[in-house]
Specification:
The protein is mainly α and about 230 residues long. The protein has a single domain (about 1-225), classed as Up-down Bundle (Glycerol uptake facilitator protein). About 70% of the residues lie in helices and about 0% in strands. The longest helix has 24 residues, at about 1-25. The radius of gyration is 17 Å and the shape is globular. It starts with a helix and ends in a 5-residue tail after the last helix.
């Protein structure tokens, strides 16, 4: 239960910090943080949580990460379901807090609410195939970074930096394409509040990250398996 509570809190922080930066701080003309600021914010949420809860739950904060670690032989199948539920609920709680804050401004308009999308709902107008490829590849690289940084042969104590900076880089590349998911819990939390098109397109932001994560887990297990 302590692990699940940690995953809940960590995913809440990821959504509140990352999506919150997009909803609250990115839209100001000249003073806003823009794409770069949002990318850094997502990286910082993971970086801070790795050191806060990594020793408790492993700091997955992401169903695709949990599934990728399982595929790579680093996580037990029996724990997958509870972790994913805790992550999704934490993401929804984070989005709920963000909604309460954002709606406190006069003239509040839900807009995209940092939801993930493709086609007309992509920040750069990218189509479904581009979004699918982007999410699969970005999640694949994210899991390679995680599996490598947390390997028993990796330098101890630096995993948080590699993972946080890796997520920042992923956002710098792919925010214009899909608003960057690589995390089904993060996508679900925002889609539930936006509804409509965001729920219609949510399938892609479960399918693509999970596919990329499983592929990365299998590839890394082949390249550098951990000793039993």
């Amino acid at each position: 239960m302590k692990k699940l509570v940690a995953e809940f809190i960590g995913t809440l922080w990821l959504v509140l910090g990352g999506c919150g930066s997009a909803v609250l701080a990115a839209a100001y003309p000249e003073l806003g943080i823009g794409f770069v600021g949002v990318a850094i914010a997502f990286g910082l949420t993971v970086l801070t949580m790795v050191y806060a809860i990594g020793h408790i739950s492993g700091c997955h904060l992401n169903p695709a990460v949990s599934i990728g670690l399982w595929a790579g032989g680093r996580f037990e199948l029996k724990d997958l379901g509870p972790y994913i539920v805790a992550q999704v609920l934490g993401g929804i709680a984070g989005a709920g807090i963000l909604y309460l804050i954002a709606s406190g401004k006069a003239g509040f308009d839900m807009g995209g609410f940092a939801a993930n999308g493709y086609g007309e709902h992509s920040p750069g107008g990218y189509g479904m195939l581009a979004a699918l490829v982007s999410e699969v590849v970005m999640t694949f690289m994210f899991l390679l970074i995680i599996l490598g940084a947390t390997h028993s042969k990796a330098p101890a104590g630096f995993a948080g930096l590699a993972i946080g900076l890796g997520l920042t880089l992923i956002h710098l590349i792919s925010i214009p394409v899909t608003n960057t998911s690589v995390n089904p819990a993060r996508s679900t939390s925002q889609a539930l509040f936006v509804g409509d098109w965001a729920l219609d397109q949510l399938w892609l932001f479960w399918l693509a990250p999970i596919a990329g994560a499983i592929l990365a887990g299998l590839v890394y297990k082949y390249m550098s398996p951990e000793k039993e």
